[in-house]
Design goal:
Blueprint: H1 2-60, H2 65-71, E1 99-104, H3 110-118, E2 125-126, E3 129-139, H4 143-156, E4 159-165, H5 171-185, E5 191-196, E6 200-201, H6 203-213, E7 220-225, E8 253-262, H7 263-272, H8 282-293, E9 306-307, H9 315-318, E10 323-324, H10 329-343
Parallel strand pairs: 1-3, 1-5, 3-4, 9-10
Antiparallel strand pairs: 2-3, 5-8, 6-10, 7-8
Helix pairs in contact: 3-10, 5-7, 7-8
């Protein structure tokens, strides 16, 4: 029994000891584990912060020129020096427009310009507000063509032109020429729209929505493109090499088929443009300027009104849109006539 007791007692004590040891070591292990856990949490936190900082510098911080220059010597935008070769007939100081519509065009788009002059571009007063529509052109090497443009400009007094080669890949220069014109000659206007010759613009609805929105400064709207990637396929019209644009994503921008900004934004874009790296996609370039200025894109309306693609015409539909893309000159005329006769006449 004694033996048994001792035998029993020993293991009990040992067991207790063992238990104590076990208990001790398990607390120790717990502590170790906790410390490890803390360390791991710290490490995860640190790497997150590191990654965030790294991404901030490379991916999202579009204007960290120092780090970017180190990786890619990207050229910044340079505007075309010299005077305008054609200017529209307007005195913005005396008679400031509410909205200036700037339409990128080129020599060959004469039919489209004529169609716009007869349709949405001819509208001078909408809801008591003054509207003007001007065309942005570059120069051609062909002297006869240049003479035609000069004659057209003298006749319609609605052409803005500077001396740069008119090519698709010079669209950023063309848009920035328009921004420069606003800055230098028409900063008294309230809003600017940039659009294209193959776009239909419902100037009535646009004016109505701008008046309803009641925004006057730091305003930029259109068809929002918030998460676009550069196209790296060489055969694409929008191909952009890594040399031209190394980052993986574009900043938020609005489709170049039609965007609207308050005039103060135009002046600010003009002001920062020469510190922004050049990209031939004009709408992305404007997006880069806006990111630098910390101006956020906004919707003009809760429903979609800017259509960067072709949509089927109907009066009821077009009453509630601002832009529709891929419109032929003949369609400009028919859409406009239907819209005006069925809604305003
Ligand atoms: C621009 O125009 C101004 C006045 O209209 C003139 O004095 C100046 O020489 C012109 N500059 C160029 C580069 O043609
Ligand atoms: C336009 O620029 C080119 C060079 O870029 C120059 O040779 C030409 O004389 C300029 N034309 C005018 C009208 O200023
Ligand atoms: C853009 O215009 C400039 C100035 O006229 C010209 O030197 C350049 O070649 C043009 N770029 C393209 C891609 O046509
Ligand atoms: C237009 O620009 C001029 C000169 O930069 C400036 O003095 C004026 O205040 C501006 N006007 C508006 C309405 O912003
Ligand atoms: C242009 O930028 C300078 C500094 O970069 C600033 O002082 C000035 O106010 C800006 N002008 C406009 C019109 O934004």
């Amino acid at each position: 029994m004694k033996m048994g007791g001792a035998w029993l007692g020993l293991p009990v004590g040992q067991r207790l000891l063992a238990l104590g040891h076990e208990h001790f070591s398990s607390t120790w292990r717990n502590m170790l584990y906790f410390r490890k856990f803390r360390l791991i949490v710290c490490l995860i936190g640190l790497s997150c912060a590191g990654l965030w900082a790294f991404y901030d510098l490379t991916e999202f911080c579009i204007f960290c020129e120092k780090s970017q220059d180190y990786l890619f010597p990207i050229e910044t935008f340079r505007r075309i020096e010299g005077n305008f070769s054609q200017l529209p007939d307007v005195d913005c100081q005396k008679n400031p427009p509410f909205l200036v519509l700037l339409v990128t065009s080129s020599y060959h788009h004469i039919d489209a310009r004529m169609a716009i002059r007869q349709t949405w571009g001819k509208e001078r007063i909408v809801a008591g507000k003054r509207l003007v529509t001007y065309f942005l052109l570059g120069s051609t090497v062909n002297l006869r063509q240049q003479a035609d443009i000069t004659a057209e400009s003298q006749k319609y007094k609605d052409i803005i032109q500077k001396n740069f080669t008119d090519t698709y890949y010079n669209l950023t220069l063309k848009t920035m020429m328009g921004i420069e014109w606003i800055h230098r000659f028409c900063n008294q206007s309230s809003f600017v729209m940039k659009t294209d010759t193959d776009v239909f613009v419902n100037v009535f609805y646009l004016t109505e929505l701008l008046l309803r929105k009641k925004r006057t400064t730091r305003f930029f709207t259109g068809f929002l493109k918030l998460h676009e990637f550069p196209i790296r396929r060489r055969r694409s019209k929008w191909y952009v090499s890594k040399e031209e644009y190394p980052r993986k994503t574009y900043p938020p921008f609005c489709s170049g088929t039609g965007y609207v900004l308050s005039t103060d934004v135009a002046s600010q874009i003009y002001n920062v443009s020469e510190s922004i790296s050049f990209i031939k996609l004009e709408d992305v370039f404007i997006g880069l300027c806006l990111a630098k200025l910390k101006i956020h894109l906004e919707e003009l309306h809760s429903e979609q009104t800017f259509f960067p693609e072709r949509i089927t015409f109907s009066v009821s539909r077009f009453k509630k849109i601002v832009t529709c893309h891929e419109v032929e000159p003949s369609e400009q005329l028919s859409y406009w006539n239907h819209l005006v006769t069925e809604t305003h006449g």
